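Quick one - inputs below.
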Amino acid sequence: MTNTPLLALEHLFKRYEGAPLLHDVSFEIAPGEIVCLLGPSGTGKTTLLRIIAGLEEADGGDLFFQGNNLRGVPPHARGFGFMFQDLALFPHRNVFDNVAFGLRMQTPPPTRAELVRRVHDTLDLVGLNAAAFAKRDVNRLSGGEQQRVALARTLAPRPRLILFDEPLGALDRILRDELEAELRALLKRLRMTALYVTHDQDEAFALADRMLLLHAGRLEQSGAPVEIYNHPANEFVARFMGLTNLLRIEKLESRNSKFEIQTSAGCFVVEPERGLAKAPRVVLLRPNALTRIASGDAARENILRGRVLETQLRAGHQRILLETAGGIFAFEWDAPIQWNVEYVFELDARAIQLLRAEGGTE
Amino acid sequence: MRPTFTFQRPTFSLQSLLLLVPLAFLAVFYFFPLAAILAYSFFPNGALDLSGVRELVSDSYYWNVLWFTTWQAALSTLLTVLAALPAAYIFARYAFRGQTLVRALTTLPFLMPTIVVAPAFVALFGPRGAVNTFLMDVFDLQTAPLKLLNTVWIILLAHVFYNYTIVFRIVSGFWSNLDPQLGSAARVLGANRFRTFFEITLPLLAPAILAASLLVFIFDFTSFGVILILGGARLATLEVEIYRSAANLFDLNLAAALSLLQIGCTLALILVYTKLQTRLAAPVRLRPQAITRRKLKTWGERLGVVCALAAQLVFLLAPLAVLVFESLQTASGLGLDNYAALNVNVRGSATFIAPTDAIRNSLLFASITVALAVALGLLAAYAVARTRRGGGVLDAVFLLPLATSAVTLGFGYILAFSRDPFDFRAAIWLIPVAHTLVALPLVIRSIVPLLREIKANVREAAAVLGAAPARVFREIDLPIVMRAVIVGAVFAFTISLGEFGATTLIARPEWATMPLAIYRLLGQPGLSNYGQALALSALLMLVSAIAIALMERVRFGETGEF
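Output:
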């Protein structure tokens, strides 16, 4: 059973005003999986979601749900849930009627008692007290409360697949963190399958079983969050994961089963290991690459010379901004250090990664 | 850039077909009569004949009429703006109890029929009016000290009274969304209150004031009932002249030429207005009213606001209150004699129309108008709201009848529908059709903003939740638009009840409406006729007020868009 994907996209293609918006997008979602579709804005994430919901048609390719082609099935017959970016609550209906809407559309519609029970259960599920909220005007709720009502409305009919279009985008960081954790727990508890679109990698890390990276209409990489963070497939993915210590490779030589790489910031020697790209173009110095300050007779390779511009506190770690011959880089460095002083650091060879260039073209 | 898509609707061709219905209505009952006027001006008997136009151009009398029409409209507009700005400020910047009620009350005069406003001003300022009676009693005078009737002053007063709410609503609505921080910024930079107002607030408000002024100017320029009744024989606007040459002098040539002039002027004005309206959407950062309004803090502020609002309400409600009061006057104190007399043909006149028949006719026409205007208005509003390209042009086309004077329209009907194959002189449905045309722009304008407010994704949300397209319309569009439809229906109802200019030209005697009966009663000598005119006016006012109260109950927020 786990072998049949719940949803399968095959070679989806979509044009927008003549220009291709989605190129040959294929992926599958297994039952019960939470997949995050991550990418910068304008890369066709929302369009992809709308195609899956049936709100738009693809120009090419196929969409299968449990093996059945969805072509020609209108949105109201697909049985999916969709949580919109701006929520799209029905402004003329109160909380109860918003949540009840999807249930009332079912054939046969539930009895009144059943309807009330299910709406109240769903409101409880999303953390809204049914007695207090059922009769409230949706236009007069706070942002977080509206979010919860929209989620309840989506969950109430128990859709076979839920599509989320950056529904938490408008909320502040603290509320978002709280809702992300709650949402994941809730989806897992209900064993729901979800495809969640976002441009925020932290949100994807918090929610996803698996992440899909979309860039300029192409899928760049797919995998568990940790896997993608540790082994970005190319320069785009690395940058998008916040890994921005990137150096162009000027010369690459293979010597003693190792690679010797010349860059503007110095020479690095790394062992070819898994995750190494074919025809690498850039070097990534991971944030944890600095091991210690080199003594006087420093090695000539895997060192980095730079002046400390700034120290910042990020997620409990001190981060230093280092001005090097190859640009300004950020590293974790928890020991005391002085500003405006030039240091020579030794680097951990395992934290030096070789990557393909900007994705998609190779 | 995020590409935006809309859910493709398979019913597009059906939509464009439905759009044709209101357009066809406009073509037959609006553009055709106007074309008939144009044709008659130059070819009265089939051959080119410029006598009407020549008479108009050569006679300095008509130039004086045009000049009077223009300056009284300009002066009325200026006075209206000056009178309405203080209250607009108070409503824009302060939140207080009773605000909604006061705002609703200020709308009352605008929705009152002109034929009620004119007797109300006679009852207030006329020789036998409340003010003069009061002054005569107090100072023991033999004659009325205030001689306002048949002067331009009473016309100006009536115009300010009538159009006050237009300036008040448009300007305070716009003002209440202006960021007060802009003013604070100017104050911090060293400008005093006075300079802040003239250098920051006024320039930002200018487009709203200008748009409102232009609309008021159009209404004052085409004012008919007020001037016909209050102006006497000497004072006449273009509109009154058209009526007189068509209905009294039977000089159709001259009436056609005058109508042409009138159409030219109003067309130019409405063009400027639509241009201005697009500018009204200037890149000003609009703020929600929760931020821009604050509560009254000091007693000084409270006193100021109470005084300003009291003055506003007295000015706007006194004429209407006096009208009711005077209609209850009898030889022996207060009573319902005037109302009882409405059904009695005192003189046994053959041309007598029982006012009760007029009431029945009016209600019948108003009901037909509501049905027609709502049906056509819904279709047109959908077309305007859903059309992405050319929606603005459609909007302007449907707005046109608002600027065309009712008398011109009525005259156009006389010319267009009096010969085969369009001989509708005996057709009573022509009256509600004319009323519908006057009401249609307001009906469309109450529905369009709400339709635009329904975001595409609200419909999509319903679709994803399992609602088929027909169900989406029933569950989402209909309930949301319903309130606007009721507002539009009330507009249509009150407009039809009070419509005077067009009706007076096209209605046959046996189909007289309440405004016609009031006008006839006012024109006849004698206290009992005057009393009956007031009684009938008070009844008309009462029916309109009930309709408006109903509308204010269902309208939420500022749904109307002039």
